[in-house]
Amino acid sequence: MAATKPGQKPANPRFSSGPCAKRPGWSPDNLKGAALGRSHRSKAGKEKLARAIALTREVLQVPADYRIGIVPASDTGAVEMALWSLLGPRGVDVAAWESFSADWVTDVVKQLKLPNARTFTAPFGELPDLSQLNFDSDVVFAWNGTTAGVRVPNADFIPTDRKGLTICDATSAAFAQNLDFSKLDVTTYSWQKVMGGEAAHGMLILSPRAVERLEVYTPAWPMPKIFRLTKKGKLIEGIFEGETINTPSLLAVEDYLDTLAWAKSIGGLSALQARCDASAKVVADWVARTPWIDHLAKNPATRSNTGVCLVFSEKCAARTEEEKAALAKKMVAMIEGEGAGYDFGAYRDAPPGFRIWCGATVEASDVAILTQWLDWAYAEATAAVAAA
Q1: Given the DSSP bridges, would you call strands 234-235 and 230-231 parallel, antiparallel or unpaired?
Q2: pTM
Q3: Band of pLDDT at residue 35, cut at 50, 70 and 90
Q4: Domain shared by 229 and 306, yes or no
Q5: Does the residue 3 lie in any domain?
Q6: Nearest to residue 347, comparing CAs of 151, 193, 147?
Q7: For residue 211, what are the domain limits?
Q8: Are 139 and 163 within one domain?
Q9: Residue 357 and residue 354: Cα distance in Å, rounded?
Q10: Do 141 and 250 belong together in one domain?
Q11: CA distance 53 to 151
């Protein structure tokens, strides 16, 4: 017997983890004020970039003495700029528990080849033992594991009196989770995640301690132009005032300004976080009443409220990993074919299942409707297998 198909579809069926859904009410008309065809070094261009930095500070609640810069190559560019510019004078510990934080292990160990590096890894769904990190060394970690749905619950594991720097990839946590900037010396993210902006641009936030390191330490390796943050031993202040290292897209800048203005209009950071929490709760409530699905992150305290990752439970009709992968692929294709949800399959390196983006630009009501379609697709797909 065929399962009953849901009678409605999400108003916005886009659940990609990046680029993420545009904010509610978004329209190309919101970008009419973009400084198109103008130089980013013109007065108009500089004003747009400086405004983006100022609004970032306001909405994200970044301390006044921290520098904020717009840099090339999205979050990846921001992280690697920090790694190449700051690491070397101390030991370095790298914590990784999903795909992208594993890239930072590769950068530190295989590319920079730092001899005094230690790595702490955990499988998908778990955190490594953060108590083993040595904060006399520099420490590199992701606040939220985009591909595993696992986050650090807070910054309590970071001592206030640390001697090393903390370098935090916060791309799927910024604007969604409480970042304790007093514990973070470098924080990075991209516009395309929680704020639903366009890709290609990254944000680099530096504490005074990070700035001091930049001005007293010169790396031994050659520094590409797009990584250079200092000149003659001094921070290039212009980077943190809107004078970008390379040419930014002023259309993408306008889009970021639009979503920051939207964030302010709904109540700022706390409202953005509440929207993420609401959508994540919809998924959690569905998982609690659905026997065939489970969270990849088993500890509720470490579950992401943005990239919510799900796997098939022991009660699922599929048994082997191959069967589960095939089932997940079929369900995603069925729902996408109905126009009821896009881009919510698990990351390619993660266990078979689903990754539902619950960032601030997603409506909880749309997430609820998607879960109804997941119920339908599971029933249809497993019935077809049983009939065969």
Answers
A1: antiparallel
A2: 0.97
A3: very high
A4: no
A5: no
A6: 147
A7: 38-265
A8: yes
A9: 10
A10: yes
A11: 26
Distance CA 245, CA 257 (A): 19
Tokens of 39: 């130089």
Q: What percent of the chain lies above the pLDDT cut of 90?
A: 98
pLDDT band at 388 (very low <50, low <70, confident <90, very high): low
Exposure class string for 116-127: b at 16+ Cβ within 10 A, else e:
ebbbbebebbbb
Average pLDDT over residues 263-287: 98
Burial (CB < 10 A; 0-12, 13-18, 19+), residue 83, is buried
**Average pLDDT score over residue span 34-63:** 97
A 10 A CB-CB count for 235 gives 18
Sign of the four-CA dihedral 377, 378, 380, 384: positive
3-state secondary structure of 359: coil
Same domain, 248 and 186: yes
Q: Which residue has the tokens 């370098």?
A: 167
Domain-terminating residue out of 246, 265, 284: 265
Report the b/e string of 175-191 with b at 16+ CB within 10 A. bbbebebebbbbbbbbb
CA-to-CA separations, 273 to 257, 287, 300, in angstroms, rounded: 19, 21, 17
**54-96 pLDDT, tens per residue?**
999 999 999 999 999 999 999 999 999 999 999 999 999 999 9
Of 139, 133, 25, which Cα lies nearest the Cα of 90? Answer: 139
